[in-house]
Design goal:
The chain is of the alpha/beta class and 313 residues long. The protein contains eight helices and 17 strands. The model has no long low-confidence stretch (mean pLDDT 92). It binds S-adenosylmethionine (SAM). It is found in: Nucleus.
Length: 313
């Protein structure tokens, strides 16, 4: 299966999206049989709020097809990193598309990039890195939780990324990254409870000619500590941002139009026209304009993103 190029037909082994609504999507591996909790091989039937689906019936159908379920319908969509993030099995907290978009841009990820990531977690971010570097680059991803690494490795393989990723079980704070990566990484991304404890390892692994770094931390105290460490190791362009979404509502509004014709007249003339203290002010004419209103700041804090450049001069 492919996360990177459009496919026409669903094949056995593909992971597809069963799209019911934007808030009701299921990631399903297309196979005829599965193993039940008693260890027996049984026909694979996927349950939804609209009834059961015999998964095997999807094989050979075109992506985008409308599927009839006993009590409604759904669409079968081809998987991509965005849909995977919305439907993947959570083993940890994950990163979402708004933060990820900024990370990809700020880390200057290109098809040939060599990227280091820790921790792998549920592999949400990893899939975007892999799509971006597919074909030429490589992702080295580390996590000290062994079963998370095993599960992520299996998913990368199934999703067609196996040749472009090395997933390893490792504590990157105590042991750093592997020695073969010294001076090789174009970009390093850390989503760890204490990223500041790994900055010495980051320095070893980043390319000295301008490697980019990013740490994601939910709390400002972690971010402050990371910035101090980055400064200590001579990183440049250290800056922290937070991605907050703000809604703009498009509305028609009546705005008063000022009558400036008096500017042309003599000053005394103008003054005599001004309303006296208790006099009712004349109603200004109004004009309808199309404008946008900002809603108050919405809750949406995920974390702080700290970026920096490593340049050994
Ligand atoms: C929040 S999750 C990462 C989520 C990931 N960014 C995603 O989008 O799915 C943090 C991961 O860091 C791992 N971790 C924490 N400390 C670590 C360390 N010292 N070395 C390696 N991995 C570590 C945890 O096991 C966990 O899986």
């Amino acid at each position: 299966m492919s996360f990177t190029k459009p496919e026409r037909v669903i094949n056995e082994g593909d992971t597809v999206i069963l799209y019911i609504t934007i808030n009701n999507m299921h990631a399903i591996e297309v196979k005829s049989h599965t193993t039940n909790k008693h260890g027996q091989k049984v026909e694979y039937v996927h349950q939804t709020a609209y009834g059961a689906l015999k998964v095997q019936s999807l094989i050979g159908k075109e992506y985008g097809t409308k599927i009839h379920l006993p009590k409604g319908y759904a669409f079968i969509l081809q998987m991509n990193p965005e849909l995977w993030t919305m439907s993947l099995p959570h083993r940890t907290q994950i990163l979402y598309t708004p933060d990820i978009s900024m990370i990809l841009m700020q880390l200057e990820i290109q098809p040939s990039s060599v990227i280091i990531e820790a921790g792998t977690g549920s592999g949400s971010l990893s899939h975007y890195f892999l799509r971006a570097i597919y074909g030429k680059g490589h992702l080295y991803t580390f996590d000290f939780h062994e079963s998370r690494v095993d599960q992520a490795r299996e998913e990368f393989q199934k999703h067609g990324f196996g040749n472009f990723v090395t997933a390893q079980h490792r504590d990157v704070v105590s042991d750093g990254f592997t020695d073969d990566l010294n001076g090789k990484a174009d970009a390093i991304f850390l989503d760890l409870p204490a990223p500041y404890k790994a900055i010495d390892h980051v320095v070893k692994a980043l390319k000295p000619s301008g490697g980019r770094f990013c740490a994601f931390s939910p709390c400002i105290e972690q971010t402050q500590e990371t910035c101090l460490q980055l400064e200590k190791y001579g990183f440049l362009e250290i800056h922290t941002i937070e991605i907050l979404q703000s809604e703009h509502i498009v509305r028609e509004k009546n705005i008063p139009v000022m009558d400036l014709s008096f500017v042309k007249q003599k000053r005394e003339d103008t003054e005599s026209k001004l309303p006296k203290r208790d006099e009712k002010r004349p109603q200004l004419p109004t004009r309808k304009i199309l404008t946008t209103l900002n809603t108050p700041i919405q809750q949406g804090h995920t974390g702080y993103l700290t970026f920096a450049t490593f340049l050994r001069i």
